[in-house]
Amino acid sequence: MTALCLVELDGGAPADASLRALTLARSLDGEVGAVVFGDAAPEEALADCGVSDAYVIERSAVEGYAPAAWARVLAGLIADTGATAVLAAGTDRGQEVLAHLGAITGLPMAANCVQIVPDGPGMHRVVRQRWAGLLLEDAILEAPAALVTVAADAVAGVSAALPPGGATRGPASIRVHLHKPELADADLRVRAAESPAAAGGMSLATARVVVGGGRGVGGPGGFAALEELADLLGGVVGVSRVVTSEGWRPHSQQVGQTGTKITPEVYLACGISGAIQHIAGCAGARHLIAINTDSGAPILARADYAVIGDLHQVVPALVAALRARREPDAGAAGSV
Amino acid sequence: MDILVCVKRVPTVGGKIAVTPDGQEVDTRMSGFTISPHEECAVEEAVQITERLGGTVSVLTLGPEAAIDQLRDALALGAGRAVLLETDGREFGPAATAAAIAAEVRSHGYDLVLLGNEASDTGDYQVGIRLAHALGWPVATGIKNLTTSADGAVARREYRGTEESYELPLPAVITVKEGINLPRYPSLPGRLRAKRAPVERSAPAWQPEGLRKQALRVPAVAGHQAVILGRGVDAVPELLRVLGELGVL
Ligand SMILES: Cc1cc2nc3c(=O)[nH]c(=O)nc-3n(C[C@H](O)[C@H](O)[C@H](O)COP(=O)(O)OP(=O)(O)OC[C@H]3O[C@@H](n4cnc5c(N)ncnc54)[C@H](O)[C@@H]3O)c2cc1C
Ligand SMILES: Nc1ncnc2c1ncn2[C@@H]1O[C@H](COP(=O)(O)O)[C@@H](O)[C@H]1O
């Protein structure tokens, strides 16, 4: 086994961020084992990603999320499989579990990698994000097992570098191992009690559409139109740091270096200038559309499309148009 | 409650970030230094906890002598004691940093150590966890809501639309994120007190790390400009067409 990859599940399927980690694991050109905490592994999806073995850690062994225990399981699997790399998504959990693994094993860990290349025994060359992605670092990782988290927003490019389809290695079926780890009480001392978040609903980090609002929204009252637009597009609202530090919206909605990193299909940034600390959080959006009064705003150098105009006019008009598409006879009368 | 807060001196990054010609550091000729927003919130959280429960707030940094500036900033916000783990110019990696902080924690004794979830410059995401393992203490990371009492803490964060809640006995290590509170501005008396406060110093040992930086670089950005769909409400039909093309309608 060359690489183990911690795969987080999202409604039974591999989470998007974990698929990116698998892409990087596969670029190592060897067998990839997926480690799944839960009652079953999504075998087909994993096989499609080139996974040869799935290690399933059942709930009877580790109930729920306990970061040190998850790391202990990975440490055991490194010993069992002889893996020379362990990868995880650059999510809160991925970073945390791999840091525990580093502390338990005494191995170094490289956070937010976008590339990993073997470079002789016990050596890898990695490229990783620093400053929340504003800079890249070329580094050498010297360790019997390379512990690596994969940047949430940067691996689309890496998968493009794989051989087309990578089909030569995609196994028809994967071997599933039910793994019963030995854990000490101390490993289970800290564990998450999970409950639906107060806000409920979709998470900013995983939403398919994000409607962004910045200082240009002008005040707390201006967000109703953005919420409505987000609803119509099946997405959520995200905001800039100006908006949270003014207290217009809660920090949980902040996108950026010190907020959430988003990876939607479409990010519609309204009244946001595009400071690098904000871009650090939305560079992973597949498509960026800006609505801004200033045709010289830095965000236009990042956006795919832009509307030059006042968001207080454009957003309600877009809402009205979307409503009209749904109910052809309801005119624009309802919009403000 | 005796609390230690760990802060790191990093370049202030404004609208642009540039690297020195040798590719080893962020170019700071045009900028100052600061600590990360996560760490500012860690200082604020510690001050709030001791305002409620009593106790002391110590602030620690590992870095060059100039990092005393950052300690004084934290003192001005209400920390009472400052510790400089002075480096000899070499960069300490996360393992060496955690080992040096662990030595200070063992020699002084604290109930709680607060850190940022990640440092702004290296973004290593691990010093707090390595510290906790070195001490044999429980740890929670990325915390945005903390309830502390004399014998324990309940730490919360949100994950994919779910709230995770962790119960930790003290002593414990907790890493926090911006948003856990709104840091106050330093008061004038606070600034004056900070100026005069003594700084305790020691010089921890450097150790090599398995992850070694070769060079830093600014990622290439396709030098493009957005396609302008139009001006004002007249652009809405075009905008709709594009949203449809991108498959989100
Ligand atoms: C360490 C650090 C961390 C940071 N972390 C983050 C972070 O996580 N997230 C983040 O967002 N920022 C972060 N920042 C702050 C960042 O540098 C910017 O200050 C912030 O992103 C600016 O927010 P803004 O775009 O809403 O405001 P501004 O920069 O003021 O831009 C407002 C924009 O709105 C446009 N506008 C105004 N009125 C209208 C209108 N009626 N219609 C349309 N457009 C209009 C203007 O042309 C302008 O482009 C951080 C800064 C630091 C130092
Ligand atoms: N040199 C340092 N001095 C003091 N605290 C540090 C230092 N480096 C890291 N830390 C703390 O550890 C946290 C996580 O850092 P890192 O693991 O490097 O991303 C930071 O937010 C700080 O609170």
Write the layout of secondary structure elements.
The complex is a heterodimer of chains A (336) and B (249).
Chain A (H helix, E strand, L loop, with lengths): L2 E4 L2 E2 L2 E2 L1 H11 L5 E6 L5 H6 L2 E7 L9 H15 L3 E5 L2 H14 L3 E10 L4 E8 L4 E8 L3 E5 L5 H5 L14 E4 L14 E4 L12 E5 L9 H10 L3 E4 L1 H5 L20 E5 L5 H7 L4 E6 L12 E4 L2 H16 L10
Parallel strand pairs in A: 1-4, 1-6, 4-5, 5-11, 6-10, 7-10, 13-14, 13-15, 15-16, 16-17
Antiparallel strand pairs in A: 2-3, 7-8, 8-9
Helix pairs in contact in A: 3-4, 6-9
Chain B lengths: L1 E5 L3 E2 L21 E2 L2 H17 L2 E8 L4 H9 L4 E6 L7 H15 L3 E5 L10 H9 L3 E5 L1 E4 L3 E8 L2 E8 L2 E5 L11 H9 L2 E4 L8 E7 L9 E5 L4 H10 L4
Parallel strand pairs in B: 1-4, 1-6, 4-5, 5-12, 6-11, 7-11
Antiparallel strand pairs in B: 2-3, 8-9, 9-10
Helix pairs in contact in B: 2-5, 3-4
The complex binds flavin-adenine dinucleotide and adenosine monophosphate.
Explain this structure.
The complex is a heterodimer of chains A (336) and B (249). Chain A is of the alpha/beta class and 336 residues long. Chain A folds into two domains: 195 residues, Rossmann fold (3-Layer(aba) Sandwich); 124 residues, Rossmann fold. Chain A contains nine helices and 17 strands. Chain A has a nine-stranded mixed beta sheet, with helices on both faces. Chain A has a five-stranded parallel beta sheet with strand order 14-13-15-16-17. In chain A, strands 2-3 form a two-stranded antiparallel sheet. In chain A, strand 15, helix 8 and strand 16 form a beta-alpha-beta unit. In chain A, helix 3 crosses helix 4 and helix 6 runs parallel beside helix 9. Chain A is elongated, with a radius of gyration of 22 Å. About 4% of the residues of chain A have low confidence. With 249 residues, chain B is α/β, with parallel strands linked by helices. Chain B is built from six helices and 14 strands. In chain B, the strands form three sheets. Chain B has a seven-stranded parallel beta sheet, sandwiched between helices. In chain B, strands 8-9-10 form a three-stranded antiparallel beta sheet, with no helix packed on it. A two-stranded antiparallel sheet of chain B has the order 2-3. In chain B, helix 2 runs antiparallel to helix 5 and helix 3 packs across helix 4. Chain B is globular, with a radius of gyration of 21 Å. Chain B starts with a strand and ends with a helix. Strand 12 of chain A pairs antiparallel with strand 10 of chain B, so a sheet runs across the interface. The complex binds flavin-adenine dinucleotide (FAD) and adenosine monophosphate (AMP). The site of adenosine monophosphate has 23 residues of chain B, from helix 1, strand 4, helix 3, strand 6 and helix 4.
